[in-house]
Amino acid sequence: MRIGITCYPTYGGSGAVATELGLELARRGHEVHFISYASPFRLRGYVERVTFHEVTQTEYPLFEQSSPYALALAVKQHEVAMREQLDLMHVHYAIPHAATAWLAKQMLKAERDLKIVTTLHGTDITLVGQDPSYYTLTKFSIEQSDRVTAVSAFLRDETYRAFGCGDCDVVVIPNFVSPAEYHPPGDDTCRRSLAPAGHKVLVHVSNFRPVKRVTDVVRVFAGVRREVAATLVLVGDGPDRDPAEQEVDRLKLRRNVRFLGKVDNVADILRGSDVFLLPSETESFGLAALEAMACAVPVLASAVGGLPEVVVDGETGFLTPVGDTGAMTAHAIRLLRDDALHARLGAAAAHRALEFAADRIVPRYERLYEDVLRD
Ligand code: GMT
């Protein structure tokens, strides 16, 4: 098949999933065309059967506050669909991608019916999409998509609850992980590069948006640090990095906290870690948690959204109420002090992650594509 993929190229779950999906599809023989304003962060170097098409925008004084990116994207989606004879356009994160794909479909209508598959990822439904400034267009573009998928049952149900979406059948296809890249460590090389000998390593990976509650990560670490020699490794960057840095200073933790910023080799860092912290306000799935589990790292996360569909409480980690840093701290200390418990949860986490292996999940997208092309 010839598949167009539009996603956000920046550090974040939806762009990561969209890119990994495109790469897996290309590996399986499909031709994949990424369309966005920049090359997605997980797309590095030349890959056979993969092409990136950059959306360019012309500056004009009148557009001062409103550079119409969405319109330029629709034009590029239409152009690539025509030139590359795309079978379908798969867009990730509804806003504005599902709406621009609908525009491209209308522009192509006289020639043929370009099928649109929309994957809902999280805040496009739980937060931004419900804002009155986007609500009706989000609902419209979901309803106009030829197929809609959600990354968890929680997100599917939230879509029905918030948008109604009369005639849509939202299909759950969970996120996936590549076991070739995310796998348990063979030795302690990664750990040695992260922390002093004898330290346990706690890790958090995110785009540091308010929804991630990164200052809670720092507070949990402060509690752990009182009982266990440990280092906190923070991967990623975003609006809440400054507040997190300030909390580290306020709690006098600077010597034991490492802000690594945006790094490429997250799997290596996960393999050097003992516990993954994800105290999010909401999380439709928690791809970062799945990637940690695949590296045999138990996850301590909020009991919200789709996280219970990924992390099995008491088996592959522990789930606690949002904001209950005390409970998360207690679980972390228990896990880091009890080697047998840690080994058991780490092994169970790696085993559970295999249920989300790319080879099991990607064929579900292929079947969905085949199905929509039969319409
Ligand atoms: O808001 C974010 O944290 C980023 C967002 C995105 O769309 O980039 O992530 C969402 O999609 C990921 C991939 O499907 C999920 O693993 C995340 O749980 C989800 N984030 C939220 O729901 C907050």
How would you concisely characterize the structure shown here?
The protein has 375 residues and is α/β, with parallel strands linked by helices.
What does this structure look like?
With about 375 residues, the chain is of the alpha/beta class. The protein has a seven-stranded parallel sheet with strand order 3-2-1-4-5-6-7, sandwiched between helices. The longest helix is centred in the last third of the chain and has 17 residues, at about 360-375. It has 14 helices and 13 strands. The model has no long low-confidence stretch (mean pLDDT about 95). Strand 11, helix 11 and strand 12 form a beta-alpha-beta unit. The protein has two domains: about 1-175 and about 355-375, 3-Layer(aba) Sandwich (Rossmann fold); about 190-355, Glycogen Phosphorylase B (Rossmann fold), CATH 3.40.50.2000. Helix 3 (about 95-110) crosses helix 5 (about 135-145), helix 8 packs across helix 12 and helix 11 crosses helix 13 (about 340-355). The structure holds ligand GMT. Ligand GMT binds next to helix 1.
| Sheet with most strands | 7 strands, parallel
Strand order of the largest sheet: 3-2-1-4-5-6-7
The proportion of residues forming helix, as a percent range, comes to 40-55%
Q: Tell me the structural class.
A: alpha/beta
The CATH topology label of the largest domain is Rossmann fold
How large is the share of residues in beta strands? 15-25%
Within CATH, the superfamily of the largest domain carries the name Glycogen Phosphorylase B
Number of helices: 14
Q: How many β-strand stretches?
A: 13
- Give the ligands present: ligand GMT
H/E element order: EHEEHEHEHHEHEHEHEHEHEHEEHHH
Low-confidence stretches: none
Coarse shape: globular
CATH class of the largest domain: Alpha Beta
Mean pLDDT: 95
The radius of gyration computed from the alpha-carbon positions, rounded to a whole number of angstroms, is 21 Å
In quaternary terms, these chains amount to single chain
Count of the domains: 2
CATH architecture of the largest domain: 3-Layer(aba) Sandwich
